[in-house]
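Job type: complex structure
Entries:
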Amino acid sequence: MAELDTLAVNTVRCLCVDAVEQAESGHPGTPMGIAPVAYTLWQKFLRFDPADPIWPNRDRFVLSEGHASTLLWSLLHLTGVRAVDPDYEVLGRPAVTLDDLKTFRQLDSRCPGHPEYRWTSGVETTTGPLGQGVATSVGMALAGRWLAARYNQPGFSLFDFDVYALAGDGCMMEGVASEAASLAGHHRLANLCWIYDSNRITIEGHTDITFTEDVAARFLAYGWNVTTVADANDLAAVERALHSFRAETERPTLIVVHSHIGYGSPVEDSPEAHGSPLGPDGVRAAKRFFGMPEDQDFYVPDGVREHFAQGIGARGAELHASWERLFEGYRAAWPAFAKETELIQRRELPDGWDQLLPDFPPDPKGLATRDSSGKVLNALAQRLPWLIGGSADLAPSTKTLLTFGGAGSFQPDSPLGRNLHLGVREHASAAVTNGMALVKLRPYWSGFLIFSDYAKAAIRLSALMEIPAIHIFTHDSIGVGEDGPTHQPVEQLAGLRAMPGLLVFRPADAGEVVETWRAVARLHHEPAALVLSRQKLPTLDRSVLGPASGVAHGAYVLADAPSGAPQVILLATGSEVHLALSAREELAADGIGARVVSMPCWELFDRQPREYRDQVLPPSVKARVGIEQASTFGWDRYVGDRGTVIGMNTYGASAPLKQLLTRFGFTPERVARAARELVEAGPS
Amino acid sequence: MAELDTLAVNTVRCLCVDAVEQAESGHPGTPMGIAPVAYTLWQKFLRFDPADPIWPNRDRFVLSEGHASTLLWSLLHLTGVRAVDPDYEVLGRPAVTLDDLKTFRQLDSRCPGHPEYRWTSGVETTTGPLGQGVATSVGMALAGRWLAARYNQPGFSLFDFDVYALAGDGCMMEGVASEAASLAGHHRLANLCWIYDSNRITIEGHTDITFTEDVAARFLAYGWNVTTVADANDLAAVERALHSFRAETERPTLIVVHSHIGYGSPVEDSPEAHGSPLGPDGVRAAKRFFGMPEDQDFYVPDGVREHFAQGIGARGAELHASWERLFEGYRAAWPAFAKETELIQRRELPDGWDQLLPDFPPDPKGLATRDSSGKVLNALAQRLPWLIGGSADLAPSTKTLLTFGGAGSFQPDSPLGRNLHLGVREHASAAVTNGMALVKLRPYWSGFLIFSDYAKAAIRLSALMEIPAIHIFTHDSIGVGEDGPTHQPVEQLAGLRAMPGLLVFRPADAGEVVETWRAVARLHHEPAALVLSRQKLPTLDRSVLGPASGVAHGAYVLADAPSGAPQVILLATGSEVHLALSAREELAADGIGARVVSMPCWELFDRQPREYRDQVLPPSVKARVGIEQASTFGWDRYVGDRGTVIGMNTYGASAPLKQLLTRFGFTPERVARAARELVEAGPS
């Protein structure tokens, strides 16, 4: 048996080496060093059914050191993992064939350079940007906790999966990992195990040159269980460490594994082993070292696949089958809960999910969109039990606290709580939200829009992975007022809008907020960013204005020129829609017909058929004024050559909002003047 | 004396309370709790001359918990700090008058909501976004180390300043602070002291709800000296702790101070004390508690200003005067070095700084702009000794290693080194770079463009502060190739370009790289981002093309239509300039005259007089094709209504570059086709 273990480990190693060599690109050293650990975990511990890699109670494996992707590709191949639509269906064909491995890093290969969620089944989250995988794993473990608390019943341990993340020195250095580790320690996530592949080599050299902290002591300070494996090749020690994780019930576990990058190759323990193929001589030397045939590429010795089938394969099948039996009993005993878990898996909404959505009567005084959003969120959350989330220590300001009976605080001793306290950790907040979304809860987090900068890399991953994470950002402009330029977003909207796949909503009033949430709730594969005001905004009277349901089209005519043939179009989002409406009145007094277009979601508008877009923005009307308390960057697409944009091209200032509006020119007079000038100039 | 200390502390507290009350906005609780510590530090330890707050060897005080800005405003007022142009000149008037304090958070007040560098003298760095101040302080301490290593001589301890940062629970939770603390520990920065104002209260409540790690143990793990003050009001204990920092010679120091937010007010120890005025009753109760007259606002008791004058004032004046005497001797003994330190203070370049800049001969094969940039950087660094920097563990890839004789690695035992190893810590890398720039070195850091996302918040601060930090980003597009979409930037360029005050350069060839660096070296008050290719790019033959000096104008005509009257304009940056040139050839073969405009820096182009801009992009030529391997977001400004953009509107893919160029349409044929279609369509 021990011999077969070694053979399997070395098979993995050589597949990784060959894939990189064939691609003439990639990272051979990390898989060579850590293969024994990944092997032991998969073969002997991971509760994972290769025949159904989306079985809901599977253990999650996150390859946080995503550059070692060949390790995952090799394991997916050797264990015979089936392809799936990652959200819904087992497709049956293998996820990774030997031919796929041979096309590593080629266009459309199932084996890309880094693991990509929704592209290769068995990939639980997209990794590569360091620190993201481990941080995301914390969200998965939190989601596991919540699922267990809500759905497990006496005799029905429906959800008890563990989450493993394999991370390198780079991950350990990233701030997002520190934030997430601190949060995991607070939550005593005993279902979470990070394996730290400590090979002490990074791209610039030995970690001695910059990373000399005591990582184990740091994690003890976070409240983790820490154990060490002195030699990655000591399979018995690796097993013992994984057993110690399983035995731990109060804390997350960090297993520090001392490994050797490029183990068995001529460049062992050197940075050269990190990011380049070994070259033909290196490959041969490594294969010789591992006792594998030197001249055979992509070689899988007899018995290795069978060995995996008897290990993870048989165990996973049995665990899964017994879970399915359990679930049949559960369905009989707890039909409503069973139904919920099925909806969750298919990312579907329960019947009546929108029944409690409020209707906001017209109100010239109105309320801040952060406030109306808070009300809508609470209404939605009461009917959508798996809508859970929290804030990066700003819930009282972002108004995202769920306050209805039973919502409660999510804490180690109250894992049914719906309100997470994420702390002043924006980056981890977004990553944790991603992790919860990958377990298919509907999670959100909130912060000030300016702090989206801190979380940018994780927001991007939600878009790249096509998962419906919800990012709620309030205090969305110089409307922040006195806190000043450090807290006033200017370029953040442009940065988020430029991100492919992210839907950015900036609603103008409570009515648009309701419709924004209605659209967001229905998303299956897109993350959304909600951009909300700190200051009060009138609730518009929809009996005389375009209906807020226009949000679904991204932009719509809110108020038209009296004649129906506008001379000028005022385009705005959020708080500036009201400015546009005021300017329209002024222009009307001057006999100028202006149309006001509210544009809460550019991305949705861009997807409308040309006919609709031309209806909202008639190409013949070239006099257009864009108005937004944000960078003008990107507005030219809508205002065109002859249009003008009233926005921010500098940072803001610390002052009460009214002073800022005058200083930066967000007044009806200025908008009207700009419009008038365009109309008077006539077609160029 | 002890009584005067207490009176001074309470004066500070009440000024803070009154300023917030008057503004009806702000954060009274933190200053009330931590005032005794800030007072003790300023009055008894800080080597700072209020009469010259830019004295180069002053200790730096960073208010990382920037929301407590009134604490700083009060101290600046009471110690009589003079106003300065923050870079160059003492202006003489007070930095903060009592009237300024009374206009806290009003438009144009010297006392804005958060400390803003270059706006109020005595502010060493802009703070507010949590974690940034402490991370920046590490850069200041590193710069201090380097200055000492280069300029101190036997008998001339020219630079021996310390750096203090006052931080709250929020700062301690932020990942950027963790990254920076780990780096500071590695560098054994005994000149760095963080004071952790541990009041255990954040906006959502007690830190118990999310932040239960052992911070002291964590910092010990980073290699710090940690000491604790049990009660912020125990001035003797605070003094002892600060002495222990001064006595420590091997490690940075963390002083954990247990404090009470809103101390002395009815909302003491509650989140309500954080971000709202106390209200009239609360103010009166607090003043009563502190034994101050309840009905006097902005009250400075007799003797308090004099007390500060005798403490920090007298000490600072003496230290400064003795330093000036020292410097006179130094100037005589070490004139060349003395000259350098003066140039540094005025952000000036030494004579001959550009003498070694290379000239790259035309070469169709060429080299990657990361490679040419590496060569230029090395040439520049040899003549500009205080150009120092490093990489977030990617120097071999970003080519930013200084390799000339004597450059060396910056390490605890070799602080003269020019190469910092910043580790896989992008966010701290940018913040540390800001810190070094604030001490007026010319620092840079490098990483892959995709990882600019991690560092976004710190890059923004360099722009907001108007400091010439240099951010070097390579691997700038799908040109990254096999690493795939996690590593291929798409929206990063748009996000950086939308940031006010940041100059973003994407040079097309080695010639433009030289001119980019020439422009960047001369910057005084603007940060720059260099965006460079991983892949080789031809070095253009400038004898037949427009001169690379056009970089200084942001955009320029690289190649014109044979007739000089172009039918179509091809606009491109970086690697796509070469694509544009190829397409131009194709079009010429079809008899279509195309102009190629290289646009390495949009921001500089936007600043040119309209005449120049119209010369480069004649308004009459409406057939325009923008080409960039990045999000098309923002391009409409240049291509106009009738133009088209060939860019990325999705994420990339893992594949060799050639396959990606075809897949995503970056081929001369497609560009030529797009141009031809526009020309054939004629004016609309």
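Summary: Chain B has a mean pLDDT of 97. Chain B touches chain A through 112 residues (CB under 8 Å).
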